[in-house]
Design goal:
CATH superfamily: Luciferase-like domain
Number of domains: 1
CATH class: Alpha Beta
Mean pLDDT: 93
Number of helices: 11
Number of strands: 11
Helix content: 40-55%
CATH topology: TIM Barrel
Amino acid sequence: MADGTFPESPLEFAMFDWIEDSGQPVADIIDHKMKLVEMADKGGFHAWLIAEHQGTPLSVDISPSLMLSAAIQRTKDLHVGALTFCLPWYNPYRLYNEISMLDQMSRGRLELGVGRGVSLLEAKVYGINDLEDSRSRYREALDIFMTACGTDVLNYEGQYNSYHELELHNKPYQSPYPPLWFPSSNKDVIQFTASHGYNTVLPGTAENIRGMLEQYREVWVEHKDDPGRHNAHVATPKLGRSHHILVAETDAEAEALAGPAHTVWSEHIQHLWKKNGQQAPISTARARGSGADQVVVCGAPKTVVQQLVQSIRESTVNYAMLVFSFGNLKPEHAEHSLELFIKDVMPAVRAELGSTKEAAAG
């Protein structure tokens, strides 16, 4: 890499899932998700990434490690991870060991998202009622994790946790630990994210994402040789954008399926805020945007190719994170959508873009 040049990662595709309450038995929901995982593994996706939420129909999966361990057993090449593990909700010693075990089980296919959690309404389950308390717990848990990765005997004296001569008989498979992710909707954290080299996924319009990624690339280059960078072991950061997506035989069929399912997802993601009489800070309006700003990318394969290519070019991302299973969408429709995407959409998008450098150049 020439000095002053950002190292673009090749364009990759990932699948994201909240593991929602779709109205089906949880056992059936899990079976469906595992089928999607197996399809993504064989279809050339880079990763399957999931959420962590508490007390909401947005997620029946309150422990990402359980779902990820199941996915690891069903895949060979697919990376798996949570965006994010909500660090203030964990005992740091247990978290360290769970992450180490998942990385060992997958032989280095774990992606590690670290954050505080999107809402204090969920953190109350763990007795966390104050924003600064949540931030302090997050910082300490992350510090303990990184410290533990670098030693065989943990000694740590913190505000919330103390460890003395604690033997560690496990380590992550990847050195010093899995690639770190820090997704955020807050443009003010780009300085932190980029200076440490975190992989990230950003929401918003293509224009806004492009602006944030211009800043990210500049800050990354400026700080690429700084000591103590959290994600220094990752040479080419993944810069992503997420879309709900539905591919069907015709545009009309895709729209008819995607609209109602997205409405249910919107109700799920706003559930806790509405329940507590608060305004959700996340916009879920289906009508927002067109072209590169489609909230839901949907249509026949050719339509989806056009929409995705425009989104990637205008936002300059190198990582397309796609939600195939959302709301109350029936499993057979999500699975057929993924099948069409793998067969007809993914290769066409790659051929159209040629390379991520072209996408980044806009």
